[in-house]
Every structure is written in C-alpha cells, then in structure tokens.
C-alpha cells in the first residue's frame, strides 16, 4: 500500500494524558537532584523557563496540528512545509530523540524499581550492566509489547497512570505545604548558581517532550480541531504549574542537601515528611516512601509508554513519506498498529539503554528535540506566508509572527548550553540525516514541500542563490516532473471501475506520450467510515489482488502508447477527496478521471463543491465510448477553454482528429464579431486549421446541434459558483443531457476567493 491511515481511537482525556504522562515523569522524579545540585533553589525557575519556552512551540504545534492532523506530528509539519531535506533532519531527530528519551525514562524506572528489589549488577563478558539498566530493559520490553497491541490500550493505560500519579503528587504537595518554610529557600540564588540557570534549563528540557508528541498521534485523535489544541497547550500549562509548585514545596520542606545529586530524592523526602505523622502510634514515613516510590514508578513508566507510542508513529510517518522504506507502513492485521515501526523503535531503545547513562540520554533527547522544535516554528511561518490552498487550521497562533519567531530562537539558543560532546553528537546526526536524504530518500520521495515550491514559483523575484538552492534539493521525481531533468509531465488517473479503466488510460496515455510524460495510475480503495482502518487492513490481501489486476491492466494499456507508467494503491476512508490529496502527493500536472455514479469522479455536485481550489488541471471524462475521431470544442474564452484547446491539440497529434470550434454569439455580440473572435482564438491556441462554427442561438442548443456530428465534446468547466449553480443550474449538466457523444470536462487549476465560490464572479466583474 502507498498510504494507510490509522483509526481514530483517542479522545481528549487520552490525548492530554499522553502529554502529561510523558512530561511529568522525568521532571519530578529523576531530574530534580541534578537541577538542585547545580542551581539550588533556582531549580524551580529552570522548569518554569523550560515550560514557557515549550509554550511558544506548543502554540505553533497546535495550529499545524489542526491544519494537518496526520501521524508523525512535528516531523510531518516540517516535511510538508520545509521539504524532505529538513523533513529527513526533523524525522531522524524526533525519532531518535524520543528513543533516547524513552531509554532515559526506563533507566529512571530501573532506579525506582531497584529501590524495592536491590538487584545486583549483571556482568556480560567485558560489559557490566547495572541493576537499573537490567530492570529498564525488562520494562522497555513490556511497554513495547503494550504499544504493539494498539493505541486504544495505550490511551486507556495512560489515563489510569496519570490520574493515580497526580493524586500521589497532590498528597505529597499538601504534606509538604504543612511543613514548608519559605525562609529555607534563602538565598534564592546562592553564589555561582545564576550562571547555571540556562544550562540546567537545557538539561531539564527533556521533561517537556510530551506536548508535541500528542501531535504525533493526531491522526488517531477524535475531533482534532477541538481536542488537539486543548491537549497540547493544556498539558504544557498543567505540567509547568505542577513542576513549579512541587519543586518549591520540596525545597522549602526538606534540606537541599537531601535533594541534590539524589536520583530518587522525592522518595527520601516523602519518607522524611510523612515520618512526622503517625496513626495509632505508627509512623507514616514508610507509607510516604511507598507512595512516592509508586509515583516514581508510574511517572517513569508513563513517560516511556507515551514516548514509545509517539516515536513509532514518527517512524511510521517517515515510511509513508518514503524518507525511509515504505515497508515500515505495514499495519498489523489484528491490532491495526504499525508494528514494524514499534519493533524498530524498541530495538533502538534497548540499544541506548545498554550503552548510555542518565545524563547522556537526557541531554541527547533534549538537543534533538530542540532542533525539531526550532524547525517546527519555522514551518508555521512558512505555511502562513505561503498560504497553500489546503492549509486551513481550526486554531491559529495569537500574536503571529512573534510567537513562532520567539519559539524558534529560544529553542535553538538553549542548545548552546548543552555540553559540547552532546552537541557534536547531535550535529553528526543532522549531517547523517542530510546525507540520508541526498543519497537515499531523494530518489524515492514525491513531494518538494511548500517552501521550495513557493521559491520556485517566484523564481524571477528571488535571488539566484535561493532559486538554485531550492532546485538542487528537490526530489528527483519532482525535478523530472517540472522539466529540470529532461521533463516529465505527470498525468494521474484515479481508477475504480475496471469497465472505464481502458478509456481513461487511453486518454491519459495519449496526453502523456505527446508531452513525453508519465501516467500515474492510482487505485484508491475506500474503507467505510464505520469500519476502523485496522479492520480494513485485515482484507489487505484481497485488496492487493484486486489492485494488482486493475493496475496491471492500466499499465498494459498505457504502454501501448509508449508512455511511461507508474502504479499506486491508496487505502483511505475518503475515496473521493483522496483524489485531491493524491494529486498533491504525486505532484500531478493533470488528473484524468471518470464521471459517473460508479466512479470516483461523481463530477456533478461533488466535483463542484470540492474543487474550488484544484491542485492541478482536471479532465473529467463522461464516457460513451472514447473516440477522438471528430472533436467539438465550444469556446467563449477563459482559462478552461484554453486548457481544452491544449488537450485537443494533443489528441489531434496522436489520433489525427478532425477538430471543430464552436462559438455561440452572445446577446451583445454581432455574428461578424463572433466570427472574428473565433478565428483569432483558434489562431492563438494552435487550432487555426480547425473547422469553425458561429451560432446565434442559445448556447445549449448550439452545442447540442453541433455535437450530433462529433464523437467527443471537450468543454471548459462552468465559470459559475456554488449559489448560482443551485439557483440557475449548470451549463455543463444541461449539455450532458443533450448530447450522445463522450464529453470531456476541462478545468484549469486556480484559486478562487469566497466571493467567486459563492457567486461565480471574478474580481473584475
């Protein structure tokens, strides 16, 4: 399959707990010891600064997520906006950053479990594995298995973990407040700690990875336009408040020396605080110890659980976009999960656990994500400025462009405070990701990205260096399609009905041959909305067999014209609308589709409603036996008629067709003016040798009469908009009822304003 989508299983509570569950673990239960040792009481401020920094990116992620609720989150947005070169960098950084973070969380999990069991280190030849690592490996295997089973089970587990965890933290905070002494926080900034604030912020930023990971499962969130911003922004705000309050209470209630450099500090603090109380003469110290130990286990476990879920989706999305092998897209027939992605991610986590330590794992995760977050903010700016037709977010960032600019600068700036070795390691990954794109992915990906296209569309206005750079990084397929590497005009044919396949491929093959182009035959298989895609995936073998048969016939038909042909199968809930997404995905120059109730192109009302902003030129064939022997082309001018003339010239060159041009004289136009218009129009469009008919009757009658001798009617799409079609009907539909030959509707790609969509008027009318 070229594209498979995931069922929408996650509600608001599941989504927000993925974010909170990922963030709350490392922030409270693993990193306070390191933060307090270096920054003293200012450790609380480092978490607040991290939260505010994260909030800028959370706002940008929310807008991008509601505009493009696709699996892969930040990677997908960067790839779509900045192109596959930066998509490769962000994908690898996000994926490996989460794998590093997951290993870090499981290492912390091992530390807390070891508080209970006191396991010894394990010697494996020359390698010694600590007890925390051994336990972390077991935990990692468990959570990889949970994610393998499915997102619904993961979301349910997150809710239980996070609600229990917040209850434990709330109880600790209450007890801490009863024993807090704010004077113990003085001096707030001991000597030498002020300079450590930003370096410590960079270290603890790993605590804020969860919010963007919500967008990684956006494709599985119910009502993403509402639930995704609430989950992303809400999780950052909630966690920042929890961090600040908890750390202030912790440092005000127990000596800082107890916390500093203690990887399980909150457990020892709880034992001390709860030990001041007793019930029936029995001290509660061990109860506090047990509760916070349980909290530490839940926190680190939920962080790892959510990170594994999100990282596997990024891997899945990279495969879908062909940055890595599409074979990772395979959906488990029973569980409906991208099981290969999960297993690959799991192997990385286990490897990092074996060879890493707490500080390396946490800082590597932070740097890689700061790179992604900086690119994500830039991606938002690109989408806003380029204004692609499909970009229509339900949520918009306030105070644009200041929010994404501050988000990008702050994200990149924090990297400077990480230790040089980790920066060098991360820089090596960026170089690897760039090389990976140039040496592998560039040959496979099929979309250049909004930014590259935006630059090339304005090549005359842009500096030569910018145009050259944009062209040099385009995917090979896109460069070929736009003529950079010898020219390759792309004609996409959505196929559904084997009975109409031959006629559509014949038309597309003739056009592709004349333009020295390629036919892209696409079989879009629709799964009903009521059926989750994982259930549809159970029928993959049947779908593959049907697609193979249909597409193989299409290949044979196209090759009879000497045209190159590529075939694709797409599994989607959206059979008709997927045509427009596929046209963008394959960078089609033209789409040739069928017109009728059994084909994808039910061109009457549905085509009119959905194609107010066409991604490319569309040709819609109402087939009554495709025969281009005698082609009738009515025209009153306009871009759609020009497109019709382009197609007619190609068909005439291929089939030696006879061509007739028709112009129906308007009420304010004389017959002589009509004849002059038709002669000039034919000459301008390379059809000066065509037969000419000028008719002073109404348009419908003129076309119907002239079409009695024609075998194919090529007509430009109506210029009227939605309201005028509803009130007055459509010229195209009236003509279709009156002629007996095949009809080819031609519509040029262009953007329409809301006024044009509703009233069918141009700006100058």
Automatic annotation (TrEMBL):
Keywords: Cell membrane, Membrane, Transmembrane, Transmembrane helix
Native species: Haloarchaeobius amylolyticus
Gene3D superfamilies listed in its UniProt record: 3.40.50.12370, Amino acid/polyamine transporter I
Keyword Metal-binding set for record: no
Localization: Cell membrane
Broad class of where this protein is predominantly found: membrane
Protein name: Amino acid permease
TM annotation in the entry: 12-30, 42-61, 82-107, 127-149, 156-178, 198-218, 230-254, 287-310, 341-358, 364-383, 395-415, 421-440
UspA domain ranges (all copies): 490-622, 659-745
InterPro entries: AA/rel_permease1, APC_superfamily, UspA
PANTHER family referenced in this protein's UniProt entry, alphabetically: AMINO ACID TRANSPORTER-RELATED, INNER MEMBRANE TRANSPORT PROTEIN YBAT
């Amino acid at each position: 399959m070229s594209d498979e989508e995931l069922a929408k299983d996650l509600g608001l509570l599941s989504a927000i707990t993925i974010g909170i569950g990922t963030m709350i673990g490392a922030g409270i239960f693993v990193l306070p010891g390191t933060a307090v040792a270096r920054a003293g009481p200012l450790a609380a401020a480092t978490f607040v600064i991290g939260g505010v920094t994260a909030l800028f990116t959370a706002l940008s992620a929310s807008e991008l997520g509601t505009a493009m609720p696709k699996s892969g989150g930040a990677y997908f947005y960067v790839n779509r906006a900045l192109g596959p070169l930066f998509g490769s960098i962000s994908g690898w950084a996000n994926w490996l950053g989460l794998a590093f973070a997951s290993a870090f969380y499981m290492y912390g999990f091992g530390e807390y479990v070891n508080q209970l069991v006191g396991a010894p280190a394990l010697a494996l030849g020359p390698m010694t594995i600590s007890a925390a690592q051994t336990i972390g490996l077991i935990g990692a295997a468990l959570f990889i298995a949970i994610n393998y089973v499915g997102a619904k089970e993961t979301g349910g587990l997150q809710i239980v973990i996070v609600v229990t965890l917040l209850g434990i933290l709330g109880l600790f905070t209450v007890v801490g407040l009863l024993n807090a002494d704010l004077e113990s926080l003085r001096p707030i900034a001991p000597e030498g700690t002020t300079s450590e604030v930003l370096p410590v912020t960079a270290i603890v930023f790993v605590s804020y990875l969860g919010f963007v990971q919500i967008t990684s499962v956006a494709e599985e969130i119910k009502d993403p336009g509402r639930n995704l911003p609430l989950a992303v922004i809400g999780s950052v705000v909630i966690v920042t408040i929890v961090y600040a309050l908890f750390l202030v209470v912790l440092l005000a209630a127990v000596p800082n020396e107890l916390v500093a450099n203690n990887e399980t500090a909150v457990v020892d603090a709880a034992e001390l605080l709860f030990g001041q109380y007793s019930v029936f003469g029995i001290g509660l110290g061990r109860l506090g110890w047990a509760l916070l130990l349980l909290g530490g286990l839940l926190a680190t476990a939920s962080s790892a659980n959510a990170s594994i879920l999100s990282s596997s989706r990024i891997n899945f999305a990279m495969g879908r976009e062909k940055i890595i092998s599409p074979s990772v897209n395979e959906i488990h027939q029973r569980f409906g999960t991208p099981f290969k992605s999960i297993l690959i991610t799991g192997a990385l986590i286990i490897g990092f656990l074996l060879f890493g330590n707490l500080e390396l794992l946490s800082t590597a995760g932070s740097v890689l994500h700061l790179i992604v977050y900086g690119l994500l903010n830039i991606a938002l700016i690109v989408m806003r400025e380029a204004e692609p037709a499909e970009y229509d977010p339900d949520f918009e960032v306030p105070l644009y462009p200041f929010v994404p600019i501050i988000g990008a600068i702050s994200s990149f700036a924090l990297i400077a405070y990480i230790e040089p070795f980790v920066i060098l390691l991360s820089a090596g990954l960026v170089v690897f990701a760039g090389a990976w794109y140039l040496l592998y992915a560039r040959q496979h990906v099929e979309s250049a990205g909004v930014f590259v296209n935006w630059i090339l569309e304005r090549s005359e206005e842009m500096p030569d260096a910018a145009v050259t750079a944009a062209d040099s990084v385009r995917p090979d397929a896109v460069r070929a399609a736009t003529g950079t590497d010898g020219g390759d005009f792309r004609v996409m044919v959505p196929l559904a009905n084997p009975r109409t396949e031959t006629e559509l491929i014949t038309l597309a093959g003739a056009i592709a041959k004349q333009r020295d182009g390629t036919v892209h035959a696409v079989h879009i298989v629709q799964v009903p909305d009521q059926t989750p895609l994982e259930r549809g995936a159970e029928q993959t073998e049947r779908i593959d067999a049907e697609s193979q048969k249909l597409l193989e016939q299409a290949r044979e038909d196209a090759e009879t014209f000497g045209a190159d042909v590529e075939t694709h199968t797409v599994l989607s809930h959206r059979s008709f609308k997927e045509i427009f997404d596929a046209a963008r995905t394959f960078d089609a120059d033209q789409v040739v589709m069928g017109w009728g109730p059994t084909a994808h192109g039910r061109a009457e009302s549905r085509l009119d409603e959905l194609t107010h902003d066409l991604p490319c030129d569309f040709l819609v064939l109402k087939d009554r036996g495709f025969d281009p022997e005698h082609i009738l082309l009515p025209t009153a001018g306009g871009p759609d008629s020009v497109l019709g003339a382009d197609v007619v010239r190609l068909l005439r060159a291929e089939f030696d067709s006879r061509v007739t041009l028709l112009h129906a004289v308007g009420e304010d136009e004389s017959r002589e003016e009509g004849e002059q218009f038709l002669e000039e129009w034919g000459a301008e469009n390379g059809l000066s040798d065509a037969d000419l008919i000028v008719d002073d009757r109404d348009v419908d009658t003129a076309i119907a009469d002239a079409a009695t001798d024609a075998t194919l009617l090529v007509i430009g799409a109506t210029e009227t908009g939605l309201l005028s079609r509803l009130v007055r009907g459509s010229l195209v539909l009236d003509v279709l009822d009156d002629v007996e030959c095949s009809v080819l509707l031609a519509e040029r790609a262009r953007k329409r304003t809301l006024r044009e969509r509703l009233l069918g008027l141009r700006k100058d009318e």
